[in-house]
Amino acid sequence: MAEIKIVDGRGSFCPGPLMELIVVLKSSQIGDVIEVLSTDKGSANDIPEWVHKVGHEYISTTEDAGVWHIRVRKAK
Amino acid sequence: MASQKICVVIVSGTRERLQMAAMVASVAAVSGHEVVVFLSMNALPFFVKDQSEPPPNEGVMGRLMEGKNIPAFKTLLEHAAALGDARILPCSMAMDVLGIEPQTLEPFVGEATGLTKFLDEAQDGQVWTF
Predict the structure, then answer these.
(1) Hey, which of A28, A56, B53, B92 would disulfide with A32, CB 3.0 to 4.6 Å?
(2) CATH top-level class for B5-52+72-129?
(3) Which residues make Cβ contacts (< 8 Å) with residue B15, sequence separation at least 6?
(4) pLDDT tier at B52, thresholds 50, 70, 90
């Protein structure tokens, strides 16, 4: 079972959460699921765009009490 | 995805412009583009190691950014070089005028580059100027 890693980007602004995600993606295995927590709406919009563009798998975005949870699976 | 070459020229030494330039360079680099950042004029002194003076604000946005957890422009450029294909190059003329030695610049800053070389780099890429 692939591991789920949490990247806590709360309180940071674009492109902080994206950069934190990329650092964790680099050290992850293919198939790993990473969940980014962000309070920045810009990042919630931009991270799925980036994931799609570079060819990882975008799973979902949910919002709960002002925190976006963006799930991504490392695909390459 | 079509990869492009993106050249970012930073000549301004204000918080907003340094930030925007670093954002463009870092996001471009981690999105698979080749990035060349050319540091000159008032921007270059902010890339001297241990330089702790913050860049002045241009306007309201800079003042608002000061109190927030915004990724530092130097950290973003460092990420651009470490996580993507970005080269951060100091302008040799600005280094001469400012009397900056290469070893006093941040470690992620590459070799002193003249305009002839930079223009060569920029020939087949987009150029973004800040």
Answers:
(1) A28
(2) alpha beta
(3) B54, B55, B56, B57, B58, B62, B65, B66
(4) confident
